[in-house]
Amino acid sequence: MNQLHPLQHAWMTDEIAMLRDQSRRFIEQRLVPQLPRWRAQKFVERSAWAEVGAMGMLLPEIPEAFGGSGATLAHQLVLQEEFARAEVPGSSLVHCLVAHYLLDFGTAEQQLRWLPRMVSGDLFAAIAMTEPGAGSDLQAITTHAIRDGDHYVVNGAKTFITNGSTANLIVVVAKTDPTRGAKGMSLIVLETENLPGFRVGRILEKIGQHASDTCELFFDDVCVPVDYLIGGVESLGFTQLMGQLPFERMLIAVASATIIERAVELTVAYTKERKAFGQTLFDFQNTRFKLAECATVAHVMRSFVNDCIQRLVDGTLDAEAAYMAKWWCSEQQCKVLDECLQLFGGYGYMTDFPIARMYADARVQRIYGGSNEVMKELIARKL
Ligand SMILES: Cc1cc2nc3c(=O)[nH]c(=O)nc-3n(C[C@H](O)[C@H](O)[C@H](O)COP(=O)(O)OP(=O)(O)OC[C@H]3O[C@@H](n4cnc5c(N)ncnc54)[C@H](O)[C@@H]3O)c2cc1C
């Protein structure tokens, strides 16, 4: 059991602790052995996510009426912790976000149409916001969806889309009113299998997160039924996106907290084993001090993240606390991984060693989900 993870916190009920243990066993037995293949091919097959779905581990927090278990957001967060801990890519995190757009903003018909199949993993989702010319400045997107009778016609291009090649349900952020900025944006669902005019570009080469497919997407006169507009009313896209941000940012912060704990565990174990100058690395005062610092960061972060999770479950988490959690936890993740990698010496640079992969995987945490600079800007606006 991980001693840095204070189980006594209120959100970690016995039931959630049981889910964590079950999912850890499942991930170790069924997913971890496949990771080398997934990294080599640069994606996880949809069938693997369907297996996760069959275990009830994709979207347990979705109400029973839509095929879920009616659990809490904390159940989802504990699953994300376990995926992150085992280096399983964050694809299910994106899938989960899309499900929550539908749950919170979809019409009853849309929820019934898509959520049960998302719970089972029959549908696996992506969210396509970023474009080659617009990332942080989302209102500058040019992809548009123009109504033509009972259809929208979607044209444009997206990039850096997680699950881009494996998803068969993609929520596209598009302008239904291209004359306006944020106020002209809508979220439109595409069921992409055999969809004329939809094309996946290449899987992009990244410095880390090799098992997740990050792709370019192209839309060339793609026809989508009008009732695939989330919520059924145009131009609500920006508000809908903003509504999910605290949860999205917590998903990132929770992964940072877990990975830091794992990095400290791995580094303590390695430095107690490895010898130099007739003693273990752990016997050097520098090693002990560095690890004491990293363990302190892990502990402080866990307290902060636990508090945020509790407030998220209670419905009282303010957006600013979530922005703080996102930037601060991801920044600490990169710092701690750098310190830990150093203590592995040359082995820390070898991708056979988890610490090397975790170091490379960490870097993007400061960029996606809203860059850390954007987080600070948003926090500063409320000061
Ligand atoms: C691996 C990976 C997976 C991703 N997955 C997805 C996905 O599934 N769906 C999706 O839609 N997108 C995804 N993204 C895109 C990601 O969200 C964007 O990369 C991110 O929002 C930043 O946008 P950008 O890359 O265009 O950088 P830019 O917006 O060009 O920013 C460049 C730099 O300028 C800084 N900057 C920008 N604006 C400001 C400001 N106002 N004040 C101060 N500094 C500023 C940024 O912080 C950054 O450091 C992914 C990206 C990566 C790398």
Describe the protein's architecture and organization.
The strands form three sheets. The protein has a four-stranded antiparallel sheet with strand order 2-3-7-6, with no helix packed on it. The radius of gyration is 21 Å and the shape is globular. The two termini are 40 Å apart. With 383 residues, the protein is of the alpha+beta class. It has three domains: 14-123, Orthogonal Bundle (Butyryl-Coa Dehydrogenase, subunit A, domain 1); 126-235, Beta Barrel (Butyryl-CoA Dehydrogenase, subunit A, domain 2), CATH 2.40.110.10; 244-381, Butyryl-CoA Dehydrogenase, subunit A, domain 3 (Up-down Bundle), CATH 1.20.140.10. It has twelve helices and nine strands. The longest helix has 30 residues, at 285-314. Residues 1-7 have low confidence and may be disordered. A hairpin with a 2-residue loop joins β8 and β9 (279-280). α4 (73-85) packs parallel to α8 (245-273). Helix content is 48%, strand content 15%. The relative contact order is 0.11. The chain binds flavin-adenine dinucleotide. Residues 94, 126-130, 135-136, 160-162, 206, 209, 214, 364, 367-368, 371, 373-374, 377 line the site of flavin-adenine dinucleotide. Residues 94, 126-130, 135-136, 160-162, 206, 209, 214, 364, 367-368, 371, 373-374, 377 line the site of flavin-adenine dinucleotide (FAD).
Could you estimate the helical fraction of the residues in percent?
A: 40-55%
Mean pLDDT: 95
In quaternary terms, these chains amount to single chain
Low-confidence stretches: 1-7
What's the shape? globular
Bound molecules: flavin-adenine dinucleotide
- Strand order across the largest sheet: 2-3-7-6
